[in-house]
Design a protein that fits this description.
This protein has 747 residues and is mainly α. It has a domain of 61 residues. The chain is built from 41 helices and no strands. α14 runs antiparallel to α15, α32 packs antiparallel against α33 and α35 runs antiparallel to α37. The protein starts with a helix and ends with a helix.
Length: 747
């Protein structure tokens, strides 16, 4: 069998596929075939491809054969085919890889963060902490967004600090201060406060650092104003204070403390071996390059959040990116500058650039959530959250944005599942998305007319606020909406008047406030302007526009316009039944019974789940007035069957017994003699029946049973007993009936 170089290349391709699919047994077999004929290859690129797959094959085994791996790396170098990724792979075996490989790699690729990180792991493993700290400081000077490197630096600095403290040799006080400051070691910092070997600015740093960890931010603000700002402090100390106050979002303090550290002194890239490169790393780490970028970042943050100075913000972005055109944090600042002027397209592009230059995926997606929220791209938010959750565990923030988008899409059931997960599975600290999640759930409860749960969540939400602040009053505004739809106008008035007095009642709720004062005769504040045509929205388009126009027209007694606007609002509303009943009430006020009846019927048909006994009773009255006894009786009976509790409490079985009387009279209208007799018998079965009921029965007997003397006698005897005003006519009739009975049955 003749083997060609193309056959070997196909073997290499198969080997690459086996490795990718973790098929190591098959990979071993193919590697053996390649080794037998590898000399047939002629191109350096083909040899390089074989060397790389063989190096990966070596990594499959638990114990790496480092001499063989290094020889293949050297082969790549000799063929002129070596790449940074080849060194990255070899250097990842930091427990076995030799120092010389790292030295060669770092001189070749001085800005490769992966190689530098592997080297730091090697140095940590060998307890060469000082060298590791230098490498990581240089790495973070080049790439400040490398969180893994920052955490590793912390661990190594803490280990170096413990090593120095355990050593019998006298420690360098400046190194101790540097390590203790970096790791926030309070016990060491407290000891350094009185160390006379330190100069005054260094002692001040130790004092300030201890105060930052032991005092409240408000106390440290007072210390700055009374003492610290008068002391000589280094740029490093000043930036430490800036970061401290920035973490508490005290941007007013940031603008007071921050100071331009000056131009960084960057060393020249003049090195040819590793020792010279170490000197370059040290000089670069101490150049102030990162400090200057950090200054522009923090000063820009202060301009964005505190002073709102757009010019300063733009200058910080421009000068910072001139200093380092690849700093992802400065691209984030650039995005905020565009966000500040509502240029959301450029905002998104700046965030994309930040991500391309090293911004973490989680932060990148968080920023995009904020942009999509501002432009109300709810589907965009759902897509971003899905992308985030495919890479990272869910957070309270991502669940909030997802729930909010689902609420905006009226996908309330899905939103409720997300909100419940967020509120049940995550800590809910004071400064979190928890109150906003409760607020979203309140909106869902209001949509479902679950007002008990609504007010339970309201109490949970306002526990996060200070009474009377803007967030608190915003929640009260939502309560005004809910109480209006609950028909609880007195309570609605209390909430509305509170927010009005705080100057926090939402503008769209003033028509509601004016209407409940008008409709329920509730007190109106003296400073509340009367309703007028100026309150009307000229070209209404939204539910709120139509509702408010309807209420204002109602107050102005423009009933036709009120009914038209409220009907349109009902068509657009979640709580359709409430607004249809409001249309009916407005029609009743205008004595338009036909319109009122139509509205109540529509409410009963289109939203039967929201109907109540008042709706049925209103319908009964209208049918009764319109002389439709059959529909009136059906409606009345449905009301009693559906709402027995309300019927029992609102219509007691007193002397008048409205419910029973209505049934009796409607049966009479329908000429239902059997029904009439039944309901009359119920009326008369009491120990002391109603006099009016007895007279009704007398009239019925005279009309239908005038020949039944016993029936007439019994009713007349009861009337004689209970009616103090028993008339002469009835008395004469009773005498005649008695005579007739005696004559007919007892003579």
């Amino acid at each position: 069998m003749i083997i060609s170089s193309n056959d070997i290349i196909s073997y290499i391709e198969r080997a690459e596929a086996h490795y990718k699919n973790n098929q190591y047994q098959a990979l071993q077999s193919v590697i053996g075939d390649i080794q037998e004929y590898v000399t047939l290859l002629s191109e350096p690129e083909d040899f390089a491809r074989y060397y790389r797959i063989y190096m990966l094959y070596l990594g499959v085994y638990e114990e790496m054969n480092m001499p063989v791996l290094k020889s293949y790396l050297q082969g790549l170098i000799d063929y002129g085919q070596v790449q940074a990724s080849d060194f990255e792979y070899v250097c990842s075996f930091y427990e076995a890889c030799e120092q010389s490989v790292y030295e060669d790699a770092l001189v070749r690729y001085p800005y490769n963060d992966t190689i530098q990180l592997h080297y730091a792991f090697k140095l940590q493993n060998e307890k060469r902490y000082q060298d590791a700290i230098l490498v990581l400081k240089y790495l973070l000077e080049c790439y400040p967004a490398l969180t893994e490197a920052r955490f590793l630096l912390w661990d190594i600095q803490a280990a170096q600090l413990e090593y120095i403290r355990d050593s019998d040799e006298e420690a360098d006080c400046n190194e101790l201060l540097d390590l203790a400051s970096a790791t926030h070691n309070k016990s060491v910092l407290k000891g350094l406060q009185l160390d006379e070997r330190l100069d005054l600015p260094s002692q001040t740093l130790a004092h300030m650092h201890v105060a930052m960890w032991e005092n409240k931010s408000i106390d440290n603000k007072a210390l700055w104003n009374s003492e610290w700002k008068h002391l000589e402090i280094t740029d490093r100390t000043r930036m430490l204070l800036v970061d401290y106050f920035q973490s508490f979002m005290r941007y007013d303090m940031v603008s007071q403390i921050i100071k331009d550290p000056g131009e960084p002194q960057l060393p020249e890239e003049d090195y040819s071996n590793f020792e010279e490169f170490k000197v370059y790393m040290q000089d670069f780490a101490n150049s102030g390059w990162q400090l200057a970028q950090h200054y522009y970042l923090r000063y820009g943050d202060s301009a964005y959040y505190h002073t709102k100075d757009r010019n300063v913000l733009n200058q910080c972005v421009q000068q910072g990116l001139t200093l380092n055109p690849k700093n992802p944090n400065l691209f984030v600042l650039k995005a905020r500058a565009f966000f500040f002027v509502k240029n959301y397209k450029q905002t998104g592009e700046a965030y994309h650039e930040a991500f391309r230059n090293g911004l973490r995926m989680s932060e990148y997606l968080f920023y995009l959530l904020e942009v999509n929220s501002r432009i109300e791209s709810w589907q965009g938010i759902l897509d971003i959250v899905e992308q985030f959750h495919s890479r990272q565990p869910a957070t309270l923030k991502t669940l909030f944005f997802k729930a909010r988008a689902l609420v905006k899409f009226s996908r309330f059931d899905e939103a409720l599942v997300v909100i419940n997960e967020a509120l049940e599975d995550f800590p809910l600290p004071p400064h979190s998305y928890a109150p906003w999640l409760y607020n979203l759930r309140m909106i869902i409860h209001m949509n479902n007319q679950n007002y008990t749960a609504f007010f339970e969540d309201m109490q949970s939400e306002i526990n996060y606020y200070k009474i009377g602040d803007s967030d608190y009053c915003s929640t009260m505004n939502l309560c005004v909406e809910a109480l209006l739809e609950m028909d609880d106008y007195k309570e609605c008035h209390k909430y509305a008047i509170y927010n009005h007095e705080q100057g926090q009642l939402a503008p769209e709720l003033y028509p509601v406030f004016k209407w409940i004062c008008y409709y329920d005769y509730l007190p109106k504040p003296e400073d509340l302007a009367p309703a007028s045509e100026a309150d009307l929205v000229k070209m209404p388009t939204t539910f709120i526009d139509f509702r408010n126009n309807g209420l204002i027209h109602w107050i102005l007694k423009n009933f036709d316009a009120a009914i038209g606007n409220l009907s349109q609002a009902a068509h657009m509303a979640n709580n359709k039944a409430f607004y249809l009943k409001m249309v009916a009430s407005c029609a009743e006020d205008s004595f338009d019974n036909a319109e009122a009846l139509s509205a109540y019927k529509t409410a009963k048909e289109q939203a039967p789940e929201a109907s109540d006994y008042k709706t049925f009773f209103k319908l009964y009255n209208f049918y009764n007035e319109e002389n439709e006894p059959k529909k009136a009786l059906e409606t009345l009976q449905h009301s009693i069957q559906s709402y027995p509790d309300y019927t029992f409490f609102d219509f007691p079985k007193d002397e008048y017994n409205m419910m029973l009387r209505s049934h009796k009279l409607l049966s009479q209208q329908l000429e239902d003699i059997e029904g009439y007799i039944k309901y009359s018998a119920m009326f008369l079965s009491k120990d002391q029946p109603s006099v009016q009921a007895l007279y009704d029965q007398l009239t019925h007997i005279k009309t239908h049973f005038s020949s039944d003397d016993f029936l007439l006698h019994n009713v007349l005897e009861q009337l004689l007993q209970y009616d103090e005003d028993f008339g002469e006519e009835e008395l004469e009739l009773l005498k005649n009936v008695k005579s007739s009975i005696i004559t007919s049955y007892f003579t």
